[in-house]
């Protein structure tokens, strides 16, 4: 037994600290050595969630390039970041499952429309680059405007639903002016202000001016649809018809000419 006066001596206290420190380092080294042994090698990656676009080959490529180490030493954050760089992956989660498996959960992007020239955008306004076969509407706007344009697209498409019209393209110009091209070829100029109110006025007056569009092959197409409609007027809108003809409702009673269009 160590005498009390020796145990309390400063050198004895330093010796104890050094001893425990050495034992700790030894245990840490032994644990690291054990964890790195091939007995704990990873042999499988399991995708827990169903995926529509991410392929097995893409996941295998990530595994071959990014999975390093054993069950205990693999860098899960590195693997997760690599999976989230795949074109269709919006979010990834990676977990260990004893004794030799990484379990992957993937959330894929759901494309809402095409974005600008070479990208896609989802309903949250997140822009991503991927190849897609289905026909999608085209949205475009300045950098960092994707969420704003997506919100406008959803509102305007809902407003046009009573007419059975579908937006083929929605553009926000660098000057913040909005323009819609419909799937029947009609173009709507909304300008920069009161765009929701202007479109609502168009939807309300359209049947009275042009009649109820007949259904053709499951969608609604106007028998004689305007080519362009300029909604930037305070008291109406300007219409250009094919071959400069007049709408049928205009031939019975000529409307008053609207004021000049607003610059907004």
Short synopsis of the structure:
With 264 residues, this protein is an alpha/beta fold. It is 32% helix and 23% strand.
The CATH class assignment of the largest domain is Alpha Beta
The stretches of 5 or more residues where confidence is low (pLDDT under 50) are 26-37, 214-218, 250-257
Count of DSSP H/I helices: 7
The amount of beta strand, in percent, is 15-25%
Considering DSSP H and I runs of 4 or more, what fraction of the residues is helical? 25-40%
CATH architecture of the largest domain: 3-Layer(aba) Sandwich
Give the overall pLDDT as a whole number. Answer: 81
Largest sheet: 9 strands, mixed
How far apart the termini lie comes to 93 Å
- Tally of structural domains: 2
CATH superfamily of the largest domain: Cell division protein FtsQ/DivIB
Number of strands: 14
Could you describe the 3D structure shown?
- The chain has helices spanning 4-7, 10-35, 56-66, 76-83, 146-160, 195-210, 248-252, and strands at residues 44-47, 89-97, 101-108, 111-115, 119-122, 127-128, 138-140, 167-172, 178-182, 187-191, 215-216, 219-220, 228-230, 238-240.
- The protein starts with a helix and ends in a 12-residue tail after the last helix.
- With 264 residues, it is an alpha/beta fold.
């Amino acid at each position: 037994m160590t005498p009390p006066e020796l145990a309390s001596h400063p050198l004895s206290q330093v010796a104890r600290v050094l001893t425990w420190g050495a034992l700790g380092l030894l245990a840490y080294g032994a644990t690291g050595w054990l964890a790195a042994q091939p007995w704990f090698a990873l042999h499988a990656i399991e995708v827990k969630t169903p995926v529509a676009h991410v392929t097995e080959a893409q996941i295998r490529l990530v595994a071959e390039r990014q999975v390093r180490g054993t069950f205990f030493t693999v860098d899960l954050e590195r693997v997760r970041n690599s999976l989230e760089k795949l074109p269709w992956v919006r979010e990834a989660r990676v977990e260990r499952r004893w004794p030799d498996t990484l379990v992957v959960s993937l959330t894929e992007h759901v494309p809402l429309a095409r974005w600008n020239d070479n990208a896609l955008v989802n309903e949250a306004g997140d822009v991503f680059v991927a190849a897609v076969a289905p026909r999608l509407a085209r949205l475009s706007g300045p950098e960092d405007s994707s969420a704003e344009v997506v919100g406008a697209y959803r509102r305007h498409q809902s407003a046009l639903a009573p007419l059975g019209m579908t937006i083929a393209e929605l553009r926000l110009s660098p000057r913040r002016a909005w323009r819609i091209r419909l799937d029947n070829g009609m173009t709507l100029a909304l300008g920069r202000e009161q765009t929701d109110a202007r479109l609502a006025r168009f939807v309300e007056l359209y049947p009275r001016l042009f009649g109820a569009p007949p259904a053709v092959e499951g969608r609604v197409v106007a028998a004689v649809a305007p080519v362009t409609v300029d909604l930037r007027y305070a008291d109406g809108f300007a219409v250009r018809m094919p071959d400069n003809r007049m709408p049928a409702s205009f031939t019975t009673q000529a409307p008053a000419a609207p004021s000049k269009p607003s610059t907004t």
